[in-house]
Amino acid sequence: MTDTWLIVGLGNPGPEYSQNRHNVGQMVLDELAARVGGRFASHKAARAAVLEGRLGIGGPRVVLAKPLTYMNTSGGPTSALAKYFGVGPGRVVAVHDEIDIPFNTVKLKLGGGEGGHNGLRDISKALGTKDYLRVRVGVGRPPGRMDTADYVLRDFGTAERKELPFLIDEAADAVGVLVDDGLLAAQQKFHPAKP
Question: What residues correspond to the site Stabilizes the basic form of H active site to accept a proton (predicted)?
């Protein structure tokens, strides 16, 4: 196995989905790509747009990936890239939307349940384990009785869009701390202190 990290931004392909809450993982990957200083290109081993580089000067080698499949089939590209680059599950990072934490919050964890997130469920199935890292980008719960699927497939609201660049920036920072300093350091830095 290698010391490379595979960072996968979850979302759906196509411009009609690009600003949806469900695509916040791919928005974070776009920010990371800007920091690495490169452009995504299709990869021969998987249906994914990939960028290889380093986060920061002398930082660890990362493979940034945006599956070109729909969210609920994110596992195939993730597994194929992990095999291709020799990355074990402990160095796979899924960046995804999370309705169970408030908007404007970033949390990190290793393993655990998928909370009804079909993209995570498919990755767990394809990797054969739930023990990969997650950077959970809070999008909040749907209002009233709105269906969860309808909610995550809508664009961020006007007030949210003003805060969104800060949230994306924070999530990208969290990925950087995670790969540089480890999960515990990232959790200590980004998880809000309990009152």
Answer: 97
